[in-house]
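Weekly modeling sync, notes
Attendees: S.R. (lead), two postdocs, one rotation student

Agenda item 3: backlog of single-chain predictions. S.R. asked that every request posted to the team notebook include the full sequence so nobody has to chase files. The rotation student volunteered to paste the first one in as an example of the format we agreed on. Action items at the bottom.

Example entry:
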Amino acid sequence: MMFFQIMGHMPTPAEVRIVDAVLVTLMEHGITPSAIATRLTLMSAPESLQGAVAAGLLGVGGQFLGTMQGAAELIAEMMAADDGVPAAAERIARRHRASKTALPGFGHNLHRPDDPRTPKILAIAQGAGVPGKHIAALLALGEAVDRVYERHITINATGAIAAVLSEIGIPVEVMRGFAVITRAAGLVGHIKEELENPASRGLWDAGTHAVEYSGNALKKHA
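Predicted structure, as returned to the notebook:
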């Protein structure tokens, strides 16, 4: 029903497999910014489960969790290029390196040298029989990135998700919604855990001790 509500038709077996893989991948990533926001909000307003979930979902963005949108935009740019995917991939890689901007769908602070989720997500889509043109474009961009940056940068899970959702016709503008939908369930899990075994006070204390305040108040009283 979720797929029907978004796309207006019942999903094919291939679409079910791909969407299931996407939802499972995005539901739970541990103590990340979205989970921390949810837990701390619950500590402040324990009567508002929905407020705590909403606080976490507001962090689904262009830096964490929602980067499939930016990656899908790059894939669409390559697919539409008059000079072909390889040339467009090279151009995108050079543009991002020159501007020193983050490349959506690439890199991970934990999964190095490679994100193990990426080949599994792509394999599920390929096994479901998708045409594969968007996946091929993503892989071409990966090759160009390694060449231009002169080092290996992994295609991360949201990069793979951008490709497989593009394969089944999910509009770029709503892709981030899949992260919102599934992470909402993950955050409810964090809330249940927080109620049973609170961690929010520890997170607050850890932040207080780990980050030295450097604002004007200290300077005035120095």
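Discussion: group reviewed the output briefly. The CA atoms of residues 93 and 155 lie 13 Å apart.
Action items: rotation student to repeat for the remaining queue; S.R. to check formatting next week.
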